[in-house]
Amino acid sequence: MAGLDFELRGKLAVVTGGANGIGFAAARLLAAYGADVWIFDLEGANPHDAALQIGAKSCATDVSRRESLDAAFAAGGTPDIVIANAGIVREADFCDHATEDWERIVSVNLTGAFHTVQSAARLMKPRRSGAIVLTASTNSYDGEARLAAYNASKAGLLGLVHTAANELGPYGIRVNAVCPGLIRTRLTERYFSDPEVLRDYFRQIPLGRGGEPDEVAQAMVFLASDLASYVTGATLFVDGGQMASKFGTWSEAAADFREGRWRLR
Fold it and tell me: What is the pLDDT of residue 78?
């Protein structure tokens, strides 16, 4: 049997929020498979420096501003692949959640994704092909405390995925999402540096550990590639089994927590 082929030479790929974390891992992997990659990110995230590391191109872009995003697509050209990954998070108790924080999170995570998908789809439709992957979350499904705006924005992405897949399918454009669990990035490093937090959090994850950005990027590239040519409107969990574990998997009766993960004795 021939090996799986992720050859992406000749493909133009755009990654929003691509200067750090999961977005950068996706951009790096797309480039490694031969795609011509553009990183769209805020100026403060240094997209130019990130792009230089992987032989990509960059454009300072605010996805919450349609004119900024349209200008970026005009500079980059019609994409074959779009990873709509830009997102932010801020924590607050539900009753203390500031309106301005709610509006900013929704404007980036949900409205920004809408702008990204719509701008890309308008360019892709005449060619009758394209692949779009959105970064949703396990929080698209659950109500993790202190994350009301983030949870709502990520839940909204699933409605966007389903609707866009339905309407764009006739044009040969596939739209899917990944739903990462707890992944080690600069935004989550404070959790990964606290063994006691990880002990309890990872108790609920069958694989007993957190994820790495490359593990999410691999799922994104699969969905963006021709290997997923009959997959659209789907969500792929990249969460170590967290959403399959209602009551938790690990206990001290049969396992130890060491070196940042649970392990059977």
Answer: 98
